[in-house]
Structures are given as C-alpha cells and as structure tokens.
Amino acid sequence: MTKRSTVHATFTIERHFPSSREKVFRAYSDAKSKAKWFVGPEDWERSDHKLDFREGGRESVSGGPPGQPVHYFNGLYQDIVPNERIVMSYEMHMDETRISVSLGTTEFKADGKGTRLVYTEQIVFLDGHDHLAAREEGTGALFDNLAAALERKAQAA
C-alpha cells in the first residue's frame, strides 16, 4: 500500500532579461517560440509541445531520460493579462503517477530597457514523489533556456 502524504511549498524566481516585456511575453504566448525553450535537458526524449494560449486554454508537454519514467506537464491557463501576467494551474505526472499540483504566476515588469520576470509557484507535492529543490532547479533551468532563446532571437534580428 502506498503511503499518502502532502507537502506544501512555495518558491519565487526573479530574472532580468535585456528584452522588452512584449518580447518576453511573446516567448511564452507563441507556440513556436515557447517550444524552443520550454523543454527538459538536451538528452531527454520529448513529446510534441501543445499550446492553446488563452484563458481556459491548455498546455502540455512530456519527456524524460531515455529508458526512465516519463514526466508529463499538463496546464490550464487561469488568467492572462498581455505583457503583465500569466496565471496557470498545472499538474505533473511521472508515468501514470500524479506527483504534484501547482499554481504558477508569471509577472512581467518593465525594468529599464529590459524586463524583470517574477515567477512564483505554490505547490502541493503528493506522496513523496518530488520535492522543492528539484522543482526549483528544473524551473531555473527553464528560465536559463528562455534567456538563451531570447539572446539567439536578438542576435538574429
């Protein structure tokens, strides 16, 4: 029998990008742009990224190390204010097991000629399958990917 548990946690990550709020927001809202940075590590197998960016719309992607359990992300957009904020609820699964449910808020704030992104996540980890340090590290890696994608786009312009 599985021992049931819940662990609640919250974390905030702040990043500065030298791009405008509009460009950073577009990296979230445009399916082709987001598919370039919203991915796991390079060696992970991955599924197609699906994005229906609107209030009530859904987003999903999955992936994982070859031969290991597959991580599934399934989100629902709760609130969108263009160039200002995105609020999404989402669940994470590892194979068939739900490991967490979260509420993530992304704020886009003008910061000189760039953008200060503030991401806050409120999580409930289920049955000991995941933990805060791993989630925070993974989310930080996604924002590293976002920075690299924005830089590549700026260099191409």
What do these coordinates show?
This protein has 157 residues and is α+β, with helices and mostly antiparallel strands. The chain is built from three helices and eight strands. Strands 1, 2, 3, 4, 5, 6, 7 and 8 form an eight-stranded antiparallel β-sheet that branches. The protein starts with 5 loop residues before the first strand and ends with a helix.
Q: How would you summarize this macromolecular structure in one to three sentences?
A:
With 157 residues, the chain is of the alpha+beta class. It is 26% helix and 46% strand. The longest helix is centred in the C-terminal third of the chain and has 25 residues, at 132-156.
Give a topology summary.
Layout: E1 6-17, H1 21-29, H2 31-37, E2 45-46, E3 50-51, E4 58-64, E5 71-81, E6 85-94, E7 97-111, E8 114-126, H3 132-156
Antiparallel strand pairs: 1-8, 2-4, 3-4, 4-5, 5-6, 6-7, 7-8
Helix pairs in contact: 1-2, 2-3
Element pattern in H and E: EHHEEEEEEEH
Distance between the termini: 57 Å
What's the helix count?
3
Whole-angstrom Rg: 16 Å
What is the typical, i.e. mean, pLDDT? 94
